[in-house]
Amino acid sequence: MKEEFLHYLWKNMLYDVDDLHDRYGNKIVVLNPGEHNHDAGPDFFNARIRVADTEWAGNVEIHISASHFDVHGHNRDHAYDNVILHVVNDDDKIVFNAKGEELLTARITYDRSLYDKYIDLVNHPGNIACGEEAAKIEGFLFRHWLSSLVIERLREKTSQVMRIFSETGNDWEETFYRLITRYFGFRVNTEPFEMLARALPFRIIRKHSDNRFQIESLLFGTAGMLEEDLFRDAVNDCYFREMSKEFRILASKYSLKPIHGWLWKFSRLRPSNFPTIRISQLSAMLQAAGGLFSQTIEAGDIGELKKLFGASASDYWDEHYIFGKRSRRAGKKTGSQATEILLINAVIPVIFVYGRFRGRQEICERALMFLDNIRPEDNIIVSEWKSVGFRPESAFFTQGLIHLTNCYCKKRKCLECLVGNRLVSLNKSLQHGNQMIQ
């Protein structure tokens, strides 16, 4: 038996309400089960019950066995003095609160099939415990649940964005610069890109917004990629020498200290994803007229947003992947998939958080609209959902599925999930429905 299952029964009143009595046979009528508390203290706040002709208001504590009230030390904790009802699966002991008052205790009874279904879900070996059974949930309800999960996911990212916002002295442009630069590493080079953004403040780049060569010099130099021994043939490359000379001047002017060039990873990457190419593409984005952050917030549709972040590396990189070594000529523009990943993971969350910070709901709604206008992601989690029959229409729904899988399915929080919650009580309240996402 798991205590969370008893919480589920109590919250949803799925127990036998006609068989709720205290140990002395008095009938207990639940007028309001209360508000579920996920923090320290009693399990449910502000409940209301009636015993005989007396109505009580207060908190409810739930345990598998009544004796656990003492085992957990609640009998010595005055935070539990306002508990009006102790709900248990096994009433094995009379217990008292810290004031010495006997606790009103009731044993809960329920349909065993509910628990069996819950255990089946919790013990399922796969990531998605409900699998094909989830298709029994009405499509509208599941889509509504995914919408809630997308908001939950974006709100969880708020703390990270606001932490950086505080570190940068409440500078939105600097915050945005750090976040998109970090995600430009696309996992493999996330850390050195983040270090680069910290070592080279955006206020310095902004001063050279009319000169892309200087922006590239600042980025490559601070990245430690202009060290002569990093690329074997770079010392004889004119572009490399000119950039190195420019960086020495700028580094002296701004007292810049480069990070170590050996931090960057090139192995097992496609040449088009080399950090050299990514840095040059980043320089094009940062040169956006009117400021990249301002342009992002003002973008009215997904096309405008993609245009801002679908940047090309400078001409030198058409024939190079690293300094000093020529390659077959090919343009190095940020691919549509890479652009969309950047938008989903960095750009759109910042737009959403900025809208919340400013109290502008229209900006938050625009962020959600952008997600809904990006193609569905293609990754392991999405593939798992597809394998059980779901076809998400856009990144809005794949983001919901990712959050559902990572924060609910993998942690087996089935009773906190609308899908698992409904499946456990299926025989009592659900009808078979169509596919959730069509």
Primary descriptors:
3 domains, disordered C terminus, alpha/beta, two-stranded antiparallel ribbon, 438 residues
How do you describe this structure in short?
It is built from 19 helices and 8 strands. It is of the alpha/beta class and 438 residues long.
How does this structure look, described?
With about 450 residues, this protein is of the alpha/beta class. The chain contains 19 helices and eight strands. The chain has helices at about 5-10, 70, 110-120, 140-155, 160-165, 170-185, 190-200, 200-205, 210-220, 240-255, 275-285, 290-300, 300-310, 335-360, 360-370, 380-385, 395-410, 420-425, 425-430; strands at about 30, 35, 45-50, 55-65, 85-90, 105, 320, 325. Strands 1, 2, 3, 4, 5 and 6 form a six-stranded mixed beta sheet that branches. The protein is elongated, with a radius of gyration of 29 Å.
